[in-house]
Write a structure and sequence with these properties.
By secondary structure, this protein is an alpha+beta fold. It is built from 4 helices and 4 strands. The two termini are about 25 Å apart.
């Protein structure tokens, strides 16, 4: 296990307990950290993540909402949607914002340097 990932899991128990290994590349961990901090907000209080993954090149979060108050749902959806949107501009592998594209047969959001490394 990666020590940095373990620290993030420890910081956001119990939200990330089921993730013994990182579900996405290290470059997106800052986004997961942000989403967890949002989920821990006392006003929001959703049930937690049911899934965190890369889908079609972008970061996706799925979470339970049965205990959210009606007025909290639009706010939660907007914040999580914003975090997912940011993933399209951040390299999944290294976190760079420079020369990031989403391309290839298996869509990956990577910077030019990380794409070269993966191709070799």
């Amino acid at each position: 296990m990666n020590k940095e990932w373990n620290k993030l899991v420890e910081k956001h128990k119990p939200l990330l307990d089921e993730y013994k290994s990182a579900p996405v590349g290290k470059g997106w961990w800052i986004l997961i950290d942000s989403a967890c901090s949002l989920m821990e907000d006392k006003e929001m209080k959703p049930e937690g993540f049911t899934q965190i993954k890369e889908k079609f090149g972008g970061l996706r979060f799925y979470f339970g909402v049965s205990n959210l108050k009606d007025k909290s749902w639009p706010k939660m959806d907007q914040f999580i949607g914003s975090i997912e949107y940011m993933s399209w501009f951040i390299c999944e592998d290294c976190g760079s914002h420079d020369n990031v594209t989403t391309e290839g047969n298996w869509k990956k959001t990577l910077c030019k340097n990380c794409r070269k490394v993966r191709e070799n």
